[in-house]
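Please produce the structure of this protein holding coproporphyrinogen III.
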Amino acid sequence: MDLKNNLILRAAKGESIERYPVWLMRQAGRILPEYRAVRASLGGFKELVETPEFAAEVTIQPVDILGVDAAIIFSDILVVPEAMGLEYQLIEKKGPWFEKTIKTEEDLKYAEFDFDVEDRLSYVLEAIKITSKALDGRVPLIGFAGAPWTIFCYMIEGHGSKTFSEARKMIYTNPKLAHELLSRITKVTIKYLKAQIKAGAHMVQVFDSWAGVLGTGQYAEFSLKYLEQIASAITEVPVTLFAKGAYSSLGAIAKLDCNTVGLDWNMDVAEARALVGETRTLQGNLDPCALYSSHAEVELLTNNLLDSFKSKRHIVNLGHGVYPDVDPEKVKTFIKTVKNYEIKY
Ligand code: CP3
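Below is the modeled complex.
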């Protein structure tokens, strides 16, 4: 299907663009009252994730309401560990919760990798197909998955954590088991991303949300190694790698076979550009908290960010997912400011 707006794909590939494309991580869900209404009508988050027609509806809401240049499929990174054998729940105000976790070789029975991904995750693929049809080429659709390291953190720990010390403990006490699990997650993730592309995703993003808990050497061994396999395997569409807190590995991430490198808000754009070079697109990186300031301030901060770009190779986003209590009107100001900005390069 022909895309009416393919700005983000051109920016990812380093082609000419007439203005910077803009979208927000976690734009589907979280902030829109329209999302909460749909979720309430179905009972909860998981019901929504698993009901393709409704997942498609909330995927498209930010395109209609906020005017973003891309849609991201409404789902979660945790559908992958669930498909592998660890069921999760989302507990209100607490976050994800896994009843079972992986602690020993014996537990690898909950980490299946040789199954039909298209069958077990058919609800996500169906949501992509429905979304794609309903979008009718208005904007590209982004597919996604968690990075193996981030999924590993949840499979070991069973829930969120500030330190993920259980997951880090395993890389010291049983690195062999850690590598076995990471390679299983990688295999499933590659099949899953390819299935999303086949279903209609125009680009894919890999979220390494807990990259920041590892030191540089460990990041190379326990995360980059697997990101490399994913980036090399996905040849069909542009790939974005977003590793939150991985500043010291940014140069190494940019060397992988990806198009775009995501930046969190702690990273300085000029310094990041020096580390990444000119052959990759940068995505980010307004502080999500900037959207709590006044409309005038949001405009100013956004323009300051745009002024820090010294090339066309940028996709505008926040430095992490939009926070749940941000006023959607502030998000609109952010987006409008990006759209009105004239590129100088
Ligand atoms: O970007 C999008 O809008 C697409 C949908 C999306 C969700 N989760 C929906 C969701 C995406 C891309 C994710 C990715 C995700 N999920 C990550 C990586 C990105 C990041 O933020 O670092 C992580 C770590 C998760 C795991 C997860 N899922 C957590 C920690 C939580 C609970 C707290 C929260 O709101 O983030 C979830 C639940 C979740 N996933 C919600 C949404 C809209 C909130 C559910 C609700 O309240 O309705």
